[in-house]
Amino acid sequence: MSGFDVIVVGAGNAALCAALSASENGAKVLVLERAPEDERGGNSYFTAGGFRFAHEGLEDVSQDILTDLSNAEREMIVLPTHSREFFMDQMREVTRYQCDEELANLLVDNSRATMAWLRSHSIRFVPMFGRQSFLVDGKHHFYGGVNIEAVGGGAGLVEAEIMRAEKMGVEIRYGTAAIGLIQSSDRVVTGVKTRTKEGYGEITAKSVILACGGFESNPEMRARYLGPGWDLCRVRGTRHNMGEGINMALDIGAKPFGNWSSCHACEWDISAPPYGDRWVLDNFQKHSYPLGIMVNINCERFVDEGADYRNLTYAKYGREIMDQPNRTAIQIFDQQTIHRLREEYRIREVTKAVSDTIEGLAEQLEIDPQKLVETIDAYNAACQDGSDYNPAILDKVGTDGIEPPKSNWALPINQPPYEAYVCTTGITFTFGGLQINTDGEVQDMTDQSIPGLYAAGELVGGLFYENYPGGTGLMSGSVFGKLAGESAAKYCGVAA
Ligand SMILES: Cc1cc2nc3c(=O)[nH]c(=O)nc-3n(C[C@H](O)[C@H](O)[C@H](O)COP(=O)(O)OP(=O)(O)OC[C@H]3O[C@@H](n4cnc5c(N)ncnc54)[C@H](O)[C@@H]3O)c2cc1C
Questions:
Q1: Are 438 and 121 in contact (CB under 8 A)?
Q2: What is the pTM of this model?
Q3: CATH numbers and ranges of domains, the chain
């Protein structure tokens, strides 16, 4: 035996929460990370660090989560409550009532306490001023349910978690991939097989927590499960989530669970590299389409840009772009809204055209000027009275008599200069994975727990189907990571 109670596979947010939790419950923990140290942090590193959780507004979160706000800052903020019922409704609505009720309830019910737990582990939080609020009458009005981020975004979150884990005595081995599970004849998982630059090995432990992401980085698995063409999309984050965790569990009889043919994918700059860039991070995303319109290269609109808050549509509209010619979408804005575009539109690495005329814009984009004028004229003619326009609420300023409609924030595009941003599909993470029970134990084909095997994070199936409420990935990794760590420590007989 290696002397470790718990091996955690992966070193993203879910894994690090599992490691912190197992360690504080008395376990000796080893974290194995496939990536070299300079690529550590998984997808979690690339995030904005935004968390969705149930809370009762500013006074509530100021107690033990947003503890660093000054009085002056507090007075500038309007933070709506995000009740557990509302969070649960969002989970049901965006997944069209397909999410596993037990898992979703666990996520929602434990979300607030887990945020306070993270804070107790020295993770600091701030309001998402830049991306999730609009300045209305001199105050920052937050909207959309994801209003609080870790200091330093995802990179800051992961760095703080690693620092904390190391302080608690957790050992992290980089460049060490888990490639298989060791299982005894009585089904008990007793360790992992590993691959490093030096070769293959085995490490034993009393239990294993798989928290090593989905299969979004693996073109073969994407094409196999998401469908033809998905091998060609960009990957928004790490290149290391190859589905190895899922596959090694399936190899010993774990049960596949959740929405294997779907994923989180969004609007991503067409010039972005194949995998995430650790400098640009998530700034290749282009998420202000509710303020304008989106057309394909045939100059046709193809989604309701204002169907709902961006947080509830962005994760499925990336899949809509996949279905467009050349997997390309063009977002168009005029001077009425350009000042409201998120900061990701102002980075140096942006694929953009600017013109005083729609025809001029089309020529730069090498699409049909006449058709683009027709599309925008038809859209403008369908826009109604815009005097109630308010980007911070669902203002119902919609179009009439056009397909697809734009249900909110529909202002005509008529104030030059016009700006266009060219996007493609960037995959974020996959929805299909393993089944866990309410203790975080991995279930097998006969619906029994595999002794000694736990899972958390992206590779857990059953939470997200077809769509996803923004900010839930980190929250789910933290809730189920903490749970898996507690359960594993208890299983090992070390928990107090
Ligand atoms: C650009 C971008 C922005 C995002 N923004 C947000 C946001 O603001 N809020 C939010 O909630 N979610 C966001 N998400 C989604 C979020 O990143 C994920 O839901 C979450 O980080 C998943 O955490 P995880 O720990 O499960 O996986 P990861 O953070 O990806 O960690 C998995 C780790 O496992 C390692 N690994 C893989 N295979 C092996 C192996 N065989 N052996 C050992 N290690 C292995 C990987 O290298 C990686 O470090 C975003 C994602 C991206 C890509």
A1: no
A2: 0.94
A3: 6-215+431-491 (3.50.50.60), 265-426 (3.90.700.10)
